[in-house]
Specification:
- It contains ten helices and nine strands.
- It is α/β, with parallel strands linked by helices.
- It has two domains: 166 residues, Thiamin diphosphate (ThDP)-binding fold, Pyr/PP domains (Rossmann fold), CATH 3.40.50; 69 residues, TPP-binding domain (Rossmann fold, 3-Layer(aba) Sandwich), CATH 3.40.50.
- The strands form two sheets. A six-stranded parallel beta sheet has the order 2-1-3-4-6-5, with helices on both faces. Strands 7-8-9 form a three-stranded parallel beta sheet.
């Protein structure tokens, strides 16, 4: 199948029902194929930065990667602030950027740019992504998409970027989707039991116990367990800004959130 078809079917198979974008020449083929595939809502923003932050919000609510697309050059660089936000707040997101045709790329030439809007977005975003891929062959797409999805969801979550030249978007790649599931961390029962023992001993010696809940409580799926712990021992709960929704606002044990913009009483 065509690369753009593979991308659309892969996203749909992963349950991603919405993507955010600002249209541009280097991603028109991808947007068109997403529309043709169906069952994926395409939201056109007024700015690529807005698309990046919308993908960020989608990921926080859905607990699956948000997806944002932008065209080459300034379109791609306009995503950077949102990419950085995903990286620092550990939010899973897949950013797909269009790139000029392979034969229009400057390569090792001693020039700044050959193709129109050619920009090395991969090098620019590497410090603020878990991985950034410069696609040079259609055959890379199945492997890269699978790896990118797993990487952004596994361990400490975060953003990935895939830069895709326009001429490869209608090239042919594999017909069979690769849909590897993100690996769950292996539980060391002995270490866990030792941790619980130490935690219980520390709690028994504590005069004023307090739980500080961050975003990791949500991403690990432990919100209910944290609340049960709080209720069982009647421990008040503070949250970080990113852990704001880890306990209901009207819960009796909720104190507020801390930090520079936190509640005075909580701080």
């Amino acid at each position: 199948m065509k690369v753009v078809t593979y991308i659309a079917q892969f996203l749909k198979a992963k349950g991603i029902d919405t993507v955010f974008e600002l249209q541009g020449g280097m991603i028109t083929r991808i947007i068109d194929e997403l529309y043709r595939e169906g069952d994926i809502t395409i939201v056109s923003m007024h700015h690529e930065q807005a698309a990046a932050f919308a993908a960020d919000a989608y990921a926080r609510v859905k607990n699956k990667p948000g997806v944002a697309l932008a065209t080459s050059g300034p379109g791609a660089t306009n995503l950077i602030t949102g990419i950085g936000n995903c990286y620092f707040d550990s939010v899973p997101a897949i950013f797909i950027t269009g790139q000029v045709n392979i034969n229009e790329q400057k390569g090792d030439r001693a020039i700044r740019q050959l193709g129109f809007q050619e920009t090395d977005i991969v090098s620019i975003v590497k410090p603020i992504t878990k991985a950034a891929y410069a696609i040079t062959s259609a055959d890379q797409i199945p492997i890269v998409l699978d790896e990118a999805y797993r990487l952004c969801m596994e361990g400490r979550q975060g953003p990935v970027l895939i830069d895709l030249p326009m001429n490869l978007q209608h090239a042919v790649c594999a017909d069979q989707l690769i849909l590897t599931k993100p690996q769950k961390p292996v539980t060391n029962n002995t270490a866990l039991e030792n941790y619980i023992t130490r935690f219980t001993q520390a709690y028994q010696q504590c005069n004023k116990p307090l739980i500080l809940a961050g975003r990791g409580v949500r991403t690990s799926g432990c919100m209910d367990k944290m609340i049960q712990l709080s209720e069982h021992w009647n421990i008040p709960v503070l949250t970080s800004l990113n852990g704001l929704d880890t306990i209901p606002f009207n819960h009796a044990n909720r104190v507020g959130f801390i930090g520079s913009y936190g509640n005075r009483w909580a701080n």
